[in-house]
Structures are given as structure tokens and as C-alpha cells.
Amino acid sequence: MDQPKCPECGYDYPYEVDDALWHCPDCEHQWNPHEVASEASLTALDANGNLLSSGDSVIVAKDLPVKGAPKPIKAGTKVQNIRIVEGDHNIDCKIPGFGSMALKSEFVKKA
Which residues contact 2 (CB under 8 A, 6 or more apart)? Predict the structure, then answer.
């Protein structure tokens, strides 16, 4: 395996701590390069068929009711720095005024 760069700071010379972990002496970040590669390969499609990936910004396409909340998430709400995950609700994000949420990619548009 080629020597990976640090996923946090991009440092070129991290070192291997053990068989699974790498350590960056510049920013002190530790990671498993196999987990980072699998997370980077996750993608989803928005309501218009555009490809979404982790770190993108999206806009909610329609009002979304939230269980236990007095009001829905309004259409047009911008959500920044999404994270693509596996499952039915394939977007993890923090929505202003609501906190951490899991959304379906079919109800958002890429910003």
C-alpha cells in the first residue's frame, strides 16, 4: 500500500502506528486508511439527479414534517457540510434551528 496523506491536514509523511492505524505528526490525527477510503466512496443523488458527496451544501426541496417538533423543516432551508452515510436516510447533517438530522437525499437539491 502506498503511504497515504493525512485526511485532516494533507501532510505527506504520516507514519504507521500499527497494522490498522496511521498517525500524522503535524496535526496529531490518527486514522484507518481503509475506513477513510470507504467513506469517501459513498455518494447519493438529489431530487434533480445531481451527484451529492460528503461536504456538499444542499437546499431542502419541500416542507418536511419532523416527529416531536412543533413545526416542519421549511422548503428552501440551506444545509451546509452534509455527510453521506449508508441506509434509507442517507444524509447526516445539522439543520439550523433543529440540530442533527438524518434526511433522504430525494428531498434535497444540491446548492
Answer: none
Phi/psi at 33 (5° precision): -60, -25
User: Cell 439550523 maps to which residue?
Assistant: 96
Same domain, 67 and 88: yes
Q: How far apart are CA 88 and CA 65, in angstroms?
A: 17
Could you list the pLDDT tens digit for every one of the 111 residues in the chain?
Answer: 567 788 777 788 888 888 788 898 988 888 887 776 555 567 789 999 999 988 899 999 999 999 888 999 999 999 998 988 888 899 999 998 888 999 999 999 998
At 53, list the grid cell.
Answer: 458527496
Are 29 and 56 in a shared domain?
A: no
**Residues 65, 93: Cα–Cα separation, whole Å:** 16
- Give the predicted TM-score (pTM) of the model: 0.64
